[in-house]
Design goal:
Distance between the termini: 43 Å
Number of strands: 0
Strand content: under 5%
Radius of gyration: 17 Å
Largest sheet: none
Structural class: mainly alpha
Helix content: 55-70%
Order of helices and strands: HHHHHHHHHH
Length: about 200
């Protein structure tokens, strides 16, 4: 099983393992909170603490994503958006990259057999439940905003249990294949240690 997971995570777009979030009735308060979360406008401030942190992270992640998304300008915009939306939702940006790799293989217009759409393979029913009629799940920022909000919602339901939250996200709660694949992609392809300024200066 470990070899299979590793092989799938190294296959890029062909590794897409999209599933389908399942509709579950939401209380009025939860529905309102999720609607607010996906509707808030994106502020102009950066999600990075410093320009140096941004340069380091974007440079490293851009290098890893280059084969999948050759256009540098779009690639950097995608990575900035991932970092912002993940940070906003209290998620690790590298986890979100791992999820995107497994869910869509970084294909913007990916559609699963169940109808899930976009980079983060969000099911269309979410637009009706918490969004606005004109929200497009193929739009980069909309897909990321919905996907990160939904994963945060599932993490809250599962009290921080990432294994179960990922199962809910994929519609495969209780089965290990999908959570294991996302964790493997997160750790093996997108793991990141913040560089030391002292090490870079040779001191």
């Amino acid at each position: 099983m470990r070899r299979l997971i590793t092989a799938l995570c190294l296959c890029g777009a062909s590794a897409a393992f999209a599933g389908a979030q399942k509709y579950e009735p939401l209380s009025a308060s939860v529905q309102a909170a999720l609607h607010k979360a996906v509707s808030d406008s994106r502020p102009t401030v950066s999600s990075f603490k410093t320009p140096m942190e941004a340069a380091d992270w974007l440079g490293e992640m851009s290098r890893r994503l280059e084969k999948r998304i050759p256009n540098r300008e779009y690639r950097i915009d995608l990575l900035r958006s991932v970092h912002y939306e993940a940070t906003r939702a209290g998620l690790d940006p590298q986890l979100v990259l791992g999820l995107m790799q497994v869910e869509s293989g970084f294909r913007k217009y990916a559609v699963s057999s169940a109808g899930a759409r976009g980079y983060m393979q969000v099911m269309p029913f979410w637009v009706k439940v918490i969004g606005r009629p004109d929200d497009s799940l193929f739009d980069l920022r909309t897909s990321l905003r919905y996907g990160c909000t939904i994963l945060r919602h599932y993490l809250d339901i599962e009290r921080g249990d990432l294994f179960r939250a990922l199962g809910r996200y994929n519609g495969s709660l209780g089965k290990p294949e999908y959570p294991n694949m996302v964790r493997a992609a997160w750790q093996n392809q997108w793991g990141y240690d913040k560089p030391s300024r002292l090490a870079q200066s040779g001191l």
